[in-house]
Each structure stands twice: as structure tokens, then as C-alpha cells.
Amino acid sequence: MPCPTLVVHEIYKSIQGESSFAGYPCTFIRLTGCNLRCQWCDTTHAFHEGTRMEMEQILKEAVAYQTNLVEVTGGEPLLQAACASLLTQLCDLGKQVLLETSGERDISVVDIRVHRIVDFKAPASGESHRNRWDNIDHLNRNDEVKLVIQDRNDYEWAKSIIREHALNERVKDVWLSPVHGVMPADALVTWMLKDELKARVQLQIHKYIWGPNVRGV
After folding, report:
1. How far is residue 132's CA from residue 105's CA, in Å, rounded to a whole number?
2. Quick one: average pLDDT of 135-150?
3. Whole-number average pLDDT of the chain
């Protein structure tokens, strides 16, 4: 059998900038390719650039950074079939594994040991019609949900989704993340406090440390 391969955009060590793991040292494996075109996307460079690598080499490079935490992200990592195997092998190596994926991909294929961060797309993204709502049935208390908010309409949409599906009872954390430089975080916090919304505010701390356009951080 041929060795499975993946197209990899970059592998690097930084701190985790989002989720409940924010601030921890983390090795990132960013895979190439995405089937969505969100209006506010901040990783368009990962749509096409990349190098095809054998699984063994990917694991070797990732482990060499010696972080307990490893995140597989994109682009959209689950577009590549071998991603599921990569996640499982990272778990087998004793790593705490995070997966950042859109709400459009089927998350049921992912090893149950993986901490899935599922990004359901709000209306201003232009891709909310692509959300795979069946994914909600596969969420568990080891997972997190991220909802990126660009404006008040996105917020009202997010509020209805959280309440309709009782997301805060299904997953570890529900995050509302303001689009950096577009959605004022103070306004988002004000709305959430007024509505007593059962969710958390998330700022992308790597963008405050290094700036919004720096790659490999």
C-alpha cells in the first residue's frame, strides 16, 4: 500500500491564539485547500499554497517541536481524506490534538479523542447556507463551537442557534469571535451581557501580539 500523503501549507510552533487552550504552546499543522470563501477569511493564503508530504514526515516534523498540544487546521483540513488518519496518529503519539474545522464538513469521521473546534458560518460570511446541521448531533462535551460575528445580524443569528440547539449544554464552550478590525468587541460584549447569552467572547490573541497579517504565528 502506498504511504498516505497530505498537502501541507505550513508546520510551525507558536501559542494557541483561540479556544479554551488560548495561550498554551502549540504546534500547528496547516493543511492546504478550502471549499468555502468566507468574506472575512484571514487565511486565504492556505487556499492553494502547499507541499505534498508523506504522513511519516508530517508526524516527524510536528513532534520535533516538542509541544504537548498540536492543532490541525487549514484551510479546511477535512477536505483531505488522510486528515482523519493524521489526527488518529497524533493521538496515538500521546499528543493533545485539536482540529479546527468548518461546520460544513462531516465531523463524525474524526477520532473521538480529538478536541474538535467547529466553526459554524454566520450570514455575513456568505457561507451560512453551507452549514451541515447534522454535525450538531455529533458534538460532545470535549468539543467547542466557534461563531464568527461581523455585525448585529450575525449576533442575532448566533443567539438563535445557541438557544435553539442548546449548544452550551452540548459542548465544552461556545465562542463568539468578533471579526478582527471590523466588529467592535465592546459592542458584542454589551449585547451578550444584556441578553445573558450562555457563551464566551473570544479575541484572537495572536493578532494582538504579532499583528493581523503575520503568517506562521
Report:
1. 7
2. 97
3. 95
Residue 215: C-alpha distances to residues 43, 115, 212 (Å): 9, 24, 9
Sequence-ordered list of residues with C-beta below 8 angstroms from that of 102, at least 6 positions apart, any chain? 36, 76, 118, 119, 120, 121, 127, 130
Q: pLDDT tens digits, residue range 35-50?
A: 999 999 888 888 998 9
Burial letters 79-101, b for 16+ CB under 10 A, else e: bbebbbebbbbbbeeebbbbbbb
pTM: 0.93
